[in-house]
Write a structure and sequence with these properties.
The protein is α+β, with helices and mostly antiparallel strands and 368 residues long. It folds into two domains: 229 residues, P-loop containing nucleotide triphosphate hydrolases (Rossmann fold, 3-Layer(aba) Sandwich), CATH 3.40.50.300; 126 residues, Beta Barrel (OB fold (Dihydrolipoamide Acetyltransferase, E2P)). Helices cover 23% and strands 35% of the residues. It contains eight helices and 20 strands. A six-stranded mixed beta sheet has the order 6-7-8-3-9-10, sandwiched between helices. It has a five-stranded mixed beta barrel with strand order 11-12-13-20-14. Strand 4 and strand 5 form a beta hairpin. Helix 2 packs parallel to helix 4 and helix 3 packs across helix 4. It binds adenosine-5'-diphosphate (ADP) and magnesium ion. The site of magnesium ion has 2 residues, from helix 1.
Amino acid sequence: MNATAQPLVRFRGVGKSYDGVTPVVEGLDLDIQEGEFLSLLGPSGSGKTTCLMMLAGFESPSKGEIWLGDTLLNTTPPHKRNIGMVFQNYALFPHMSVAENVAYPLTVRRVDRAAKAEAVKRALDMVRMNEFADRLPKSLSGGQQQRIALARALVFNPRLVLMDEPLGALDKRLREHMQIELKDLHRTLGLTFVYVTHDQSEALTMSDRVAVFDNGRIQQIDRVDSLYETPSNGVVANFVGDNNVFVGRLISVQDGRAEVGLPDGERIFGQMVGAARVGDTVRACVRPERMTLCTRSGFDGGTPSLNTMHARTAGTLYFGDHVRVRFAVNQQEGGFVKVPLDDESLTEWSAGDELMLKFDERHLRIFA
Ligand code: ADP
Ligand code: MG
């Protein structure tokens, strides 16, 4: 991925409304770099598929421009865009064999017989499905059908491959397996992938960058680590990864360090993100793995930058590789702390116990 070169794809001021009244995508400016794996992540209905469909050419923008290199796509029909597309429901032709399905984009492009056979073989090899060439789609499992759909999207050497929740119908184990295969394939081919998902862990594991959608707008687009560590607003913080949220009032801000008063009188400090005025209601967010717990009597005083809060245990959840201790705080929604399994203090917690939450103020982000 070369961030200094001209982006492969540019969305400029793109908007879309299906009924001419309600916007489903608004003010979309998006650069997609050659060779990157970019995911569009967001809740259902946030406009991800609409964006992908506009890029593929199955929907047209109501406003703005979409460019692929030097070509304005708005006026280019789908089959002339050189873009491969994989749908969630596979969309294979049921009456055609695997090989015929994969050959289809080449048939449409009037590629000659010999070149076509060669390309189909290569594409089926990529997804390790050559031995199934003569089968009908219905005789294949979901994961195998999705591999065929992928081969069909790759067979004509597209400049760009779009995938809309391609693993959504597969069970967890197969989905995780396919995530790794897709990522390996991306690396081997060096192609540009644009991937739609509502699953944040899928987006984080697979992508170079993620664009978080909400309400038809990109809330943040960033590398996966930045997105997780430095979300730029509360929507992103809550959609990407787990978060404990405490609602309070902003007491003061100095050099980006905010003091927040909680309803029960406790005060916590964190980093101010975005703009809020003293007295405003703010949301203080901290990742569960950034918190620790101790008993009241076991509290050693901590360090100057340590936030402490009184809480009660609400139960524990076993996760195999860690345990989640759920907690309750007065006048707040509950939350949880991730505790490593080898933490011997774990056995001390039972529901209703008084405890102390501890988290460094560097890890508390305050959103307006
Ligand atoms: P996502 O893929 O993020 O779930 P979509 O782009 O599919 O979101 O949908 C965004 C909004 O546009 C939703 O409110 C959806 O109901 C609406 N929508 C999507 N496709 C159509 C369509 N063909 N006609 C009318 N409304 C649509
Ligand atoms: Mg969708």
